[in-house]
Design brief:
The protein is 48% helix and 9% strand. It contains 18 helices and 9 strands.
């Protein structure tokens, strides 16, 4: 379709054929029974009346996803081993040199990681997004830049094709990724932009129904080595919802035109990832390049970007997991009893509770895109809107525990400063927050008037991490849902807790949990009154400070709802997550962010959560909802 040439020297990676060589590697350890328990397959939910599709009867990749995550963890090896070519020493050296870690990229190519981004019906391994996040966490636990630079960007680019592409486009791109190729995304320009979102490409009608491309993008990840590009190109002069279209360039054999690759742009974070520019001058693309319909670019972005809104926080959380592990190591160092000093105990337990809260929200969003794809739009935006601030606050708290070690550049603690640099570049910065704010704020008045306290509860399967899901279909994603899944869960959970409260002693963890649930329901009632007034002359409209502040509060209420839903979903599992202690601590921290009154926590709550985080660190288990075994 279009030749893509470097302005200096052509760059082309060699990719090994797709082979699941990680399958030959021994798993790091078996996952504890409580952490790996799965709930029954989802069924129609009597309370909500929503029909939920059954899980696929026999999808081998689906069944093996958690095993693939364990095998990738084992293949990457002990991150603290100085001789491990995929360990912290090697990754930090590559970051200092602003290079991708070649040995680790070769390992991932040999493992066929690109197949994780291709839908199962096109020959890949992607059956649902929760399992994809689990497979990617071993990678992101070690290095965000590697996770982005090697592959996840290919998924974000391909999502538009999986969502609206025709069959030839979908199959050509699938074959390209399965063969180890890369595809990258050329974003449209938005007014509230960082460097990645500035500048854009214009597409005008060309001969025989094709397109002629002109323009440039100065910052595109993997522009130097991607063989295909998914472009959000301007096809109308006026702004508006029909201003852009999506074009797929490549991976067909080159034509006479060319795309000029520009020099590398050094970024403050994700230094091992390669960002560079692209310049288009009278580049011809055939009629087969158009993905979907003309003018559908903004709509496609709103639909397909839901995936990145949940998946980015869901995998980046693994990097904060690593920093919490570093903080625990620093806090117990040289202490004979193996316990942190008292001043650090609440910090470590609190950050762990925050990670579980963030994971509850991210995993719920990922599961919603399989269970309720028509209604996942607002939830996905709220995940991306809320989690960056929570994770940044957690890193600030952990910095106090690390002290001078936070400036260390060695293998034990060097990952902290790297993560602080990488997070803003990884889509968790100001521009990403503004995009999600632009989704949420206009919806608040309608939600207040028609959805809150009216939406039926979603199925219980939404809150059972690891439980079977129906196959995920990109084409079912929508951006106009009118239901609010998590506020319905909040109201329902608060009602159930209130009914049982008389059976609990005052001041017990269960009773305090019930009180927190009522606190957040009361906050939702206040939000309903204030948001319903936003469209009136008295309340004002548009993106004023009041509307943005209400969006902040609304997103925190959704985080609290995800915690309550996930805690309820653990009933009968016998796991740590069935205990109310973590939920009580997580909700107390969310309530403080809202400025709500927070009672003294029951005795033993902090100790229980602290004991779990210390135990997982000793046993080498992840600090997320799954508690999976880690290498090293």
């Amino acid at each position: 379709m279009t030749a893509v040439q470097d302005s200096t020297t052509p760059v082309r990676d060699t990719h090994a054929p797709v082979r699941d060589t990680c399958a030959a590697a021994p798993a790091a350890a078996s996952v504890p029974a409580a952490a790996s328990r799965r709930a029954e397959a989802p069924a129609p939910d009597a309370a909500s009346g929503r029909a939920v599709g059954s899980a696929p009867a026999a999808v081998p990749w689906r069944a093996a996803a958690s095993e693939r995550a364990a095998r990738l963890e084992a293949a990457l090896g002990d991150p603290h081993d100085p001789d491990n070519p995929h360990g912290h020493v090697a990754l930090l050296r590559a970051d200092e040199a602003r290079e991708a870690p070649a040995a680790t990229e070769a390992l991932l190519a040999e493992a066929g990681l690109g197949a994780e981004f291709v839908p199962y019906d096109l020959g890949g391994r992607l059956t649902d997004l929760e399992e994809l996040a689990r497979v990617l966490r071993p990678l992101f636990r070690r290095d965000l830049a590697l996770g982005y630079g090697f592959g996840i960007t290919s998924l974000f680019a391909a999502c538009a094709v999986w969502t609206a592409g025709d069959e030839p486009q979908r199959r050509a791109l699938a074959a390209h990724l399965l063969d180890g190729g890369r595809v990258t995304i050329v974003h449209r320009e938005v007014a509230h932009a960082n460097a990645i979102l500035r500048n854009e490409v214009e597409a005008t009608p060309g001969p025989e129904g094709g397109w002629v491309l002109n323009g440039r993008k100065d910052v595109v990840i993997n522009a130097h080595r991607a063989e295909a590009f998914v472009m959000y190109a301007r096809t109308a002069r006026e702004d508006g919802p029909r201003s852009h279209s999506v074009l797929l360039l490549g991976p067909e054999p080159p034509a006479a035109s060319e795309v000029r690759r520009l020099g590398r742009v050094e970024m403050p974070g994700m230094r091992g990832a390669h960002f560079s520019g692209l310049e288009f001058h009278e580049v011809a693309a055939g009629p087969g390049a158009l993905v979907g319909e003309v003018g559908e670019g903004v709509s496609l972005a709103l639909r397909s970007f839901q995936i990145s809104h949940c998946l980015i926080p869901g995998v980046v959380l693994a990097g904060v997991d690593s920093v919490l592990r570093q903080a625990v190591r620093a806090a117990v160092e040289n202490r004979s009893d193996g316990l942190p000093a008292r001043r650090w105990q609440k910090v470590l337990a609190g950050v762990f509770a925050d990670l579980l809260a963030c994971d509850s929200m991210a995993v719920t969003g990922l599961r919603a895109m399989s269970l309720l794809p028509e209604d996942a739009y607002l939830l996905a935006a709220a995940v991306k809107y809320t989690m960056p601030d929570l994770l940044r606050e957690d890193l600030e708290e952990l910095a106090t525990v690390l002290g001078a070690r936070g400036y260390d550049r060695g293998p034990l603690y060097g990952g902290f400063q790297k993560l602080v640099r990488d997070l803003p570049v990884a889509g968790l910065g100001h521009a990403g927050t503004a995009v999600c704010q632009a989704i949420l704020v206009p919806q608040l008045p309608a939600l207040a008037r028609t959805a809150w306290f009216r939406t039926p509860e979603p199925p219980a399967a939404l809150f059972r991490p690891g439980a079977p899901l129906p196959p995920f279909d990109h084409r079912r994603l929508a951006h106009s849902g009118t239901d609010d899944l998590l506020t319905a869960t909040l109201v329902g959970a608060a009602g159930r807790l209130a009914e049982q409260r008389s059976g609990w002693a005052d001041g017990s963890a269960h009773a305090v949990l019930a009180g927190f649930a009522q606190t957040f329901v009361a906050e939702l009632r206040v939000l309903r009154a204030r948001c319903a007034a936003l469209g009136s002359p008295a309340g004002g409209s548009g993106f004023d400070a009041q509307a943005c502040a209400l969006a902040d509060r609304y997103a925190l209420v959704l985080a609290a709802a995800a915690v309550l839903g996930t805690w309820e979903g653990q009933a009968g599992t016998g796991s740590f997550l069935e205990d109310p202690a973590w939920a009580v601590l997580a909700l107390s921290r969310i309530a403080r962010r809202l400025g709500a009154a927070v009672p003294d926590l029951p005795e033993g709550v902090v100790g229980s959560v602290l004991g779990e985080v210390l135990g997982r660190c000793r046993e080498g288990r992840s600090l997320d909802l799954y508690g999976t075994a880690l290498a090293g």
